[in-house]
Amino acid sequence: MGGFDNRPRLNQLQAVGTHNSYHLAPLDEPWSGIEAWQVSMSSPGVQLAEEGVRQFELDVNVANDGSGRLDVFHVPIVDARTTCLALVDCLGEIKTWSDAHPAHAPVAVLLELKDNDLGFPVPYGFWDPASLDALDALIRGVFDEDEMFTPDDLRGGYASLPEAIATDGWPTIDTVRGQVMFLMDNGGTLRSWYTEGRPALEGRVLFTNASPGAPDAAFVKRNDPIPEAAEISVLVAAGYVVRTRADADTVEARANDTTRRDAALESGAHWVSTDFAVPGRAFGSPYYVVAPGGTPSRCNPVNTALWCESRMIEALP
Fold it and tell me: Are the beta carbons of 45 and 37 closer than 8 angstroms?
């Protein structure tokens, strides 16, 4: 890996992110009674400016009316309230904040591409190779190339992403400040379509949720940090960037159970997603998630040395 200097690299940060970052709780019964859906988020811009969030998860749905429209919400009709319906508007909020704060550490945007087969008619359908290309084009319509960190930027002249990571490593955070990177939550067929003819993500915008060692492998998702804690730490040490979750379905928050949260932070996962990034929203419980000592992010507890200080990752007012 590249020679040592005393500047942390992109894979040496740890940041708090949000799960279903756009979500507003449903108002109508019976859906309003589903505990896992009783979470309401601030807008992306507020999360960045006031809540220390540096990673988002957006569920993206494809309209089936031939328009190609890409919208952000959880489930059509029954759990569709959102702070920003159009994907382009959600990304626009992130860009507005980013443009105003060019010294920020890279912001990660995880996209879950939703197929909609609910057993009743809805105005949204299924992803296909053409809609994946349209997604890349939409993102590039919001962010210029120099405003994103893409697989091409990481790979450079190497044949694969793992080769680039093993040889040169990730760039220093100072060289990618003010940039946004995009991650694909899905695997399976969608990943296969996205990498077809582009095995190392040549020309693509998103980093795929890949199998370690594959040509497209740089990002991996390991959502449960209790059974997967050891694996996460191994992946982090090997140079991959990892997303995990501190809580799920409001269970830990309602019980003020910090076991999973603490395991997530200790694992070294780079992005620890939560439904509760600020206090006061956990149904009367004091539960919330913050990177200890972060400003708002912190030095990764697994792969950084004593010389690293959180202000070297990011120190915005």
Answer: no
